[in-house]
Amino acid sequence: MKKELLLILNILILVNFSFAVSCPSKTATSFRFITFVGRLDGLGGDKEVKVWFEYGLNKDKLDKKTKELILRDSQIFCLRERGVKPCTTYYYRAVAQNTAGINYGEIKEIKTLCQKFKNKTNPIQNSYPDKKSNWIIF
Fold first, then answer.
1. From start to end of 2-136, where are the E strands?
2. Does the residue 29 lie in any domain?
3. What total number of domains does the chain contain?
4. N or C terminus: which one in the chain shows less Cβ crowding within 10 Å?
């Protein structure tokens, strides 16, 4: 069979389970980063496969790309991307490439966390802006 037909790369974005200790169980966000999590199922007959994530603000235009990883086994993988905007919906997909070509995973969406408090050092004081009190925060 041609190598193109041997390419069996099912890139799945994980939703509810984890196989690797170093990666979260699913794609996760904070205010300023997203940790993308995916799974590589097979190398398509090659010795290694290059994987990465594409993401952006529009699902029809995934114009940003994470760094690339080289994988030599089927496995869970994750990449953290910093500098994203808080309270923003991002669209993303996993991508894998071997000598037969490029395979794209399903496009998913995730929203980064929103900042709830204006006063980051004292959220309690932010809740009672009219009160002039000294707070001790541990």
1. 12-13, 28-29, 33-40, 49-56, 64-65, 69-71, 75-82, 89-98, 101-104, 108-111
2. yes
3. 1
4. C
The SS3 of residue 129 is: coil
Provide the residue-wise pLDDT of the chain in tens; the chain has 138 residues. Answer: 333 323 333 333 333 333 444 899 999 999 999 999 999 999 999 999 999 999 999 999 999 999 999 999 999 999 999 999 999 999 999 999 999 999 999 999 999 999 876 555 555 544 444 444 444 443
0.90 cut: is pTM over it?
A: no
CATH code of the domain containing 68:
2.60.40.10
Q: Are 91 and 111 in contact (CB under 8 A)?
A: no
State the Cα–Cα distance between residues 113 and 123, nearest whole angstrom. Answer: 16
Measured between its terminal Cα atoms, the distance across the chain in Å is 64
Q: Which domain holds residue 110?
A: 3-127
